[in-house]
Amino acid sequence: MSNLELRPAERVCAVGDAPDDIELLTSREVPLGGPRAMTVRRTIPQRRRSLIGAWCFCDHYGPDDVSSSAGMQVPPHPHIGLQTVSWLFAGEILHRDSVGSEQLVRPGELNLMTAGQGISHSEESTPSTPDRPRPPTLHGVQLWTVLPSSDAGTAPRFDHHADLPVADVDGVRVQVFLGSLRVAGDRLTSPARTYSPLVGAQLDLPAGSRLELDVDPGFEHGLLVDAGEAALEGTTVPPSELAYAAPGRDRLVVAAGAEPVRAILLGGAPFTEDVVMWWNFVGRSHEDVVAARADWSAQLTDLADGSTGYVEGAEGRRFGRVDGYDGGPLRAPALPDVRLKPRTQPGR
How far is Cα 108 from Cα 122, in angstroms, rounded to an integer? Predict the structure, then answer.
């Protein structure tokens, strides 16, 4: 998914000390596209906290009725220095990218795109036909992880995983889509490739239930609540908010109140590198971002009808081209008229 803010702020994500108690992060609404945009709820990055382990971006959307609308329509756009993680609770999304992938993602399946030195992709709700009606609801999360500098220039790739580990403990369901997690004495490990120590999992708790997880004490964790009212370590976490737990715990307890809870657990070793985030780019410096924007802009041209297209030979350039999407690629927003500078979080 693209960050479609017209004036995206640069951010530097840095490791540092964190409080011992549970910290609640409130989401902000961001329109994903034009006047009829679907709205997403973004919890990270924000001024209070930019990273949870290597997790650097969390958009939460839906449930949206897409039975009579265009649904999700994110035109081709570029990325560098990150992995994108597409995870659905309901509906389906069609992914296309510049390495030639075309893949549906459905609930319980993982689409994982590694941008590395540069990739572009599109995401859209599938068209509805008489033979195959579109699922009426779209609901899920879009997540990014930062690649460490040793892997930031890796070759782009795309992976789809439909068979992911699941545990059911007294009616509580845990599905791990990235990394590994110990549940009731058994370690669940995703087959997906990652570049730093982390975990991502969906938790489904019946009303009144409790889940105790053995976790890596070197990890920091976040719990994004999708539905129901959850408690993390006794702290109530309303829907659409994210609770942060600092490193130092070897156990996390998640509990459900009077209604069933669905939540996403994110965690990882604190990321020790400072990285600049702007628009869809994750770099290490102002120059990295400026170069990526220039390379993407050099691949685009204005067409006679006023739309944007690709220059001849774009498929051989840094970000390649995405074929099959009904529309032109996105142009990058204007850069700020000052040098992109680190923006650290309070207390870091």
Answer: 20
101: left (phi over 0), alpha (psi -120 to 50) or beta: beta
Helix, coil or strand: residue 295: helix
How wide is the angle at C-alpha 37 spanned by C-alphas 315 and 43, nearest 5°?
A: 90
Cβ-Cβ contacts under 8 Å for 343 (sequence gap 6 or more)? 9, 10, 11, 12, 47
| Domain-embedded: residue 313 | no
List b or e across 31-40, with b for residues whose CB sees 16 or more CB atoms inside 10 angstroms: ebbeeeebeb
Q: Is residue 286 part of a domain?
A: no
Asked, for residue 290, whether it belongs to a domain, the answer is: no
User: Residue 152: which CATH number?
Assistant: 2.60.120.10
**pTM here?**
0.91
Q: Find residue 105's DSSP bridge partners.
A: 93
Please write down the long-range contacts of 166-173, taking CB distance under 8 Å and 24 or more positions apart.
169/211, 170/209, 171/206, 171/209, 172/203, 172/204, 172/205, 172/206, 172/209, 172/211, 173/202, 173/203, 173/204
Q: Which domain holds residue 88?
A: 11-268
The single residue listed with the structure tokens 């992938």 is: 101
Residue 160 contacts residue 86 (beta carbons within 8 Å): no
Which amino acid, residue 47? Answer: R
How far, in Å, CA of 303 to CA of 311, rounded? 10
User: In a 10 Å sphere around its CB, with 0-12 CB exposed, 13-18 middle and 19+ buried, how is residue 348 labelled?
Assistant: middle
Domain count within the chain: 1
Tell me the per-residue pLDDT of 24-81, one tens digit each, with 9 for 90 and over. 999 999 987 554 567 899 999 988 899 999 999 999 999 999 988 888 999 999 999 9
